[in-house]
Amino acid sequence: MKKILLTMLASCALIACGGGGGNPGTPGNGTGGTTPDVASVEFLLDKTVIANSGSDAATITVTALSASRNPVANAPVSVVLSSGVFTPTSNVTDASGRMTGKIEIGGDRSNRDIRFDLKAGAQAGAGVVAVTGSQIALTVVPSAPTPGQPVEVTAKVADVNGAGISGIPVVLSGSVLSAAITAQTDTSGVAKFSAFNAPGAAQVYSLQAKASGVISNEQITVAGGATQVPDAVGIVSAASLSIVPNTVKPNLDGGRTNMAQLRALFLDKDNRAIPNMRVRFEIVPPGLGSGESISTGNQTVISNASGVALAQYIPGTRVSPTDGVNVRMCYGTSDASLSSGKCPDFRVGTLTVASEPVSITIGDNNELEKGANNLTYIKKFDVAVANAAGEAVSDADVSVSVDILRYGFGRYDNVKNLHTDGSGFCLNEDVNRNGNLDSGEDANGDGRLTPPKADIVVSYFNGRKTGTNGRVIVQAEYPQNVATWLLYKLTVSSNAAGSEGRAERIFLTSFIEGDQKNGSFLTSPYGVTSVCLPE
Ligand SMILES: [Ca+2]
Ligand SMILES: [Ca+2]
Known about the structure:
- It is a single chain.
- The chain is mainly β and 535 residues long.
- It folds into 4 domains: 104 residues, Immunoglobulins (Immunoglobulin-like); 87 residues, Immunoglobulins (Immunoglobulin-like, Sandwich), CATH 2.60.40.10; 116 residues, Immunoglobulin-like; 150 residues, Sandwich (Immunoglobulin-like), CATH 2.60.40.
- It has 2 helices and 36 strands.
- The longest helix is centred in the first third of the chain and has 7 residues.
- The two termini are 41 Å apart.
- The N terminus is likely disordered.
- It binds calcium ion (2 copies).
């Protein structure tokens, strides 16, 4: 039996429908002819704030109206931004008088307002989209210097996802400094300032860092005589240690290009921040050696007004097994509580030092099989794992998972091999992917999660370890009635020599040619119509 995977034309409507291309910039001037008479212009933004991750966008819909408030088609529309990138879907309004386009941040990840000036025909409008998400984290060593003691400050500037923002200036100022100093962030978003001496008078000083459109304010106590950092007040209800990123490359040159941020947070039972907590970060023995260190050495760090104390883990030249580095934060409310290496209370976090990750690919062919009882379809995938040199990695553990992105509703047209008009695709209702029906998730009101997670299962064809050729076969299996109605993402990851690699691909459930004549999927199992969660 010849088994052929039918290409679903309908699928392109979901997978890659992001933008229509279009020319950024302004459309040409009206070239004579009959310019439609636009009496007013309105616009609608789907959001007025976009995150600075680079993948967020605001969609603007511009509507051109005539004097009688009817839509005006073919009106030329231009949108000019003060920064960022505008991608229109068209330079003129459509039959409903509308034109849409995307506003994105472009290469500039700083917090700011993006102003747009638009014109439809001779009518103009303007507005603002705010960019947010920049964060600055300051590490001061020592946390409470004595008068005249050298102080080292590093600032990590990150986007909304915690990814470092490289190549931007960070300006440090405040009463602790005699003059403002500037440093540039490196490839990890870290700016390291040259050391300065703490002022001679023991008192509390201010320190301010400014970068990427945001400001971070800290206080530094120069301690001596009567001026000491007070003990922390309040009962710690939640003490946490987070490590970002939790996989970091080694510093093969002995430098500190690659670092992971250690962030301690202290809250009381009412979720209020506890400042002035003393924290000492340390590598739990046996460490990796080979030059690994903590940026604050064996000094204590003091939590700021937000209850946060920071340091950096700096890898040496060696890599570790997965989660092979244990970092401990010891904490107490006073200097005495941590003196002489004491560790009254602690939390431990783990991270991995890994060189170039292994490379993974997911391959497939155009074939599909029927399950043993002719109730399911099975699609097999070839997973290949290679090291940085391209050599096959054998005996590597492979993990595969499936995530259903969307489900379809409607009917199948067995003449044209397409879903009929009125069919469509909705987002998976399990927004937080916890497998439970939570408040607000049951958009279609059937009392359960749509689609059920078990509508596609993945498994290993012949064990989960790669063979000597670095390959392993995984498969996805689903009941025949969901064919063409589920869009799913297959994720494969593998750890080899402490280095995690990962690959993802998106597929539509397909069927075996011939089954469209009378297959069980000709009507969506999720209904002919549906109510979707908002996009
Ligand atoms: Ca849920
Ligand atoms: Ca539902």
